[in-house]
């Protein structure tokens, strides 16, 4: 599932809002981890009725996060998959109108909460499967331009080694991979 497309900046408040919804985030995660599914199968796994999952799937499709799998869909049964492994990036807050910035803040809050849940599972995951729970903590002095170049190299490296559920080789597993940087001289 390689994708050499340009990064997609989430600067449309409608797209940000679509991605902020908790059930939509769970649906998208489910599709990324387990591959194509129908509203019925997603609803069963996530404990939601088919009407609800159908609505949220249509919202994700409307904003380009998922797409129908035409070769598997037929009649009333529609199969869905992520719309590709794309490089989705947050806009700087000042790129949004002031009234739209709370939507971006909510998306960042939701992502942070998910990241904290993943981080809380790290010690047990590392003890159970150290070959799969890799970690590195780094520290460096960089310029703003150097950090931007490092980030682009990281994204390219991730795309070079990544596979989607439909093209993953035998033995591949879905992994949470995170990179963040924060200035160390701020309190």
Automatic annotation (TrEMBL):
Q: Which UniProt keywords apply?
A: DNA-binding, Transcription, Transcription regulation
User: What is a single Pfam family found in this protein's UniProt entry?
Assistant: HTH_20
Describe the location of the HTH arsR-type domain by residue ranges.
Answer: 14-97
- The stretch of residues making up the signal peptide is none
Species source reads Actinomadura graeca
Query: What superkingdom does the record give?
Result: Bacteria
What is this protein identified as?
A: Helix-turn-helix domain-containing protein
Q: Which residues form a coiled coil?
A: none
């Amino acid at each position: 599932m390689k994708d050499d497309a340009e990064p997609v900046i989430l600067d449309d408040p409608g797209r940000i809002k679509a991605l902020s919804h908790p059930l939509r985030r769970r649906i998208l995660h489910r599709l990324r981890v387990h591959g194509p599914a129908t509203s019925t199968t997603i609803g069963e796994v996530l404990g939601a009725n088919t009407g609800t999952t159908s609505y949220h799937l249509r919202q994700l499709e409307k904003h380009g996060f998922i797409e129908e799998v035409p070769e598997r869909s037929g009649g009333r049964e529609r199969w869905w998959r992520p719309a590709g492994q794309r490089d989705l990036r947050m806009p700087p807050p000042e790129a949004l109108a002031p009234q739209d910035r709370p939507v971006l803040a909510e998306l960042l809050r939701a992502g942070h909460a998910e990241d904290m849940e993943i981080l809380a599972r790290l010690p047990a995951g590392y003890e159970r499967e150290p070959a799969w729970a890799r970690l590195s903590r780094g520290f460096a002095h960089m310029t703003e331009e150097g950090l931007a170049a490092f980030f682009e190299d990281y994204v390219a490296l991730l795309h070079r080694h990544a596979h989607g559920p439909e093209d993953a080789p035998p033995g591949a597993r879905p992994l949470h991979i995170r990179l963040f940087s924060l200035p160390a001289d701020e309190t």
